[in-house]
Amino acid sequence: MSPMREPTVVGVPNFNAAEDAAALRGAMKGLGTDEQTIIDILTSRSNEQRQAISKAFTHEYGRDIIEDLKSELGGHFEDVIIALMMPPAEYLCRELNNCMEGLGTDEDVLVEILCTRTKPEIAEIVDTYEKLYNRPLAEHMCSETTGDFRRLLTLIVTGARDEEAGVDPARAADAAQQLYDAGEAKWGTDEEIFNKILAHESFAQLRLIFEEYKNLSGRTIEQAIKAEVGGELKEALSAIVECVENSAAWFATRLRAAMQGLGADDRTLIRIIVSRSEIDLGAIKTEYERLYDKTLESEVRGETSGDYKRALVALLGPA
After folding, report:
1. Integer Cα distance of 35 and 175 in angstroms
2. What Gene Ontology molecular-function terms does this entry list (predicted)?
3. Could you tell me if 213 and 180 are in contact, meaning their C-beta atoms sit under 8 angstroms apart?
4. Cα angle at 303 between 300 and 307, to 5 degrees?
5. 103: exposed, middle or buried (C-beta count within 10 Å: 0-12, 13-18, 19+)?
6. Which of 27, 251, 275, 309 has its CA 20 to 30 A from that of 269?
7. How far apart are CA 159 and CA 52, in angstroms?
């Protein structure tokens, strides 16, 4: 999958890590904290630039910038800033670990992170997870999930997706027929076939398979999955399908869900805005407005407040 690259954060030209480190030290030193300086610097630098600031900060002051930020900031504002300061794979690994630790597992987070990433992104997450937690991600995930949902996620994290094969119309037609035979054409559903095809084929090949499926069956693969599959597996397969077709729209619907109902799901709001800001957050903003007739910025402003709001709005970039 290659999402439409439309970042809202691209870093700054003429970047100087030592100068930024000095400005951040000044913002945190002494009485009170200059939150606006922290927002202005960290929301406009790329993650690579933030890592350079972190190194310069330690080199100049012998201090860990993340620890200093944690001691000066609080609440969801702190969560945004700390998320920005982590390398992307480490941040997502910490989110994965958090969703599996303790009582119950948040399957939505597993789906959001694992079903929407490219094979190289998954490989980096798997590698980072083992370094951070000294246990394989697949093993931890298998202990927290069950059935066909577990089998699908295991295929994804073990790197089953073939992104080198190129697209092949004949194979796409054959795969579409297999999906049809495994679902609509029979009594009961063979989830294993859905898992195998949706976890193995490249996103470009899946796009072709889904077109062939519609020609063959007269309805979309999403309609078939919603009718034939249940539970977490339905959510996971639907996420793959929707990200093949329009990943920005899928993330827009996740953001919308995070802001609906009583109180925002701040963790999801922060995770999507931070983790997509250097990838396709611009495209997500466009899709949000197309789908809901409201700007993402206006919705975020309505659901958040203070420095937390200012930090998220800054990451969203110009309206």
Report:
1. 54
2. calcium ion binding; calcium-dependent phospholipid binding; phosphatidylserine binding
3. yes
4. 75
5. exposed
6. 27
7. 30
Give the pair of three-digit tokens for residue 75.
């609440």
- What pLDDT digit, counting tens, does each position of 134-175 carry? 999 999 999 999 999 999 999 999 998 998 888 999 999 999
**Residue bearing tokens 């922290």:** 38
Give the whole-angstrom CA distance, residue 212 versus residue 207.
Answer: 9
Question: pLDDT by residue (tens digit) across 228-248?
Answer: 999 999 999 999 999 999 999
Q: How far apart are the first and last CA of the chain?
A: 27
- Tell me the pLDDT tens digit for each residue of 257-297: 999 977 889 999 999 999 999 999 999 999 999 999 999 99
Tell the residue number behind the tokens 């929407």, with chain if given. 116
Q: Characterize 218-255 residue by residue with b for buried, 16 or more Cβ atoms within 10 angstroms of its Cβ, and e for exposed.
A: eeebeebbeebbeebbbbbbbbbbbbbbebbbbbbbbb
Q: How far is CA 259 from CA 134, 182, 296, 316, in A?
A: 35, 37, 10, 16
pLDDT tens column, 40-67: 999 999 999 999 999 999 999 999 999 9
The token pair that represents 128 in the structure block? 């980072």
The tokens describing 313, both together, are 């709005």
Neighbours of 257 (CB within 10 A): 12
Using DSSP, state whether 220 is helix, strand or coil: coil
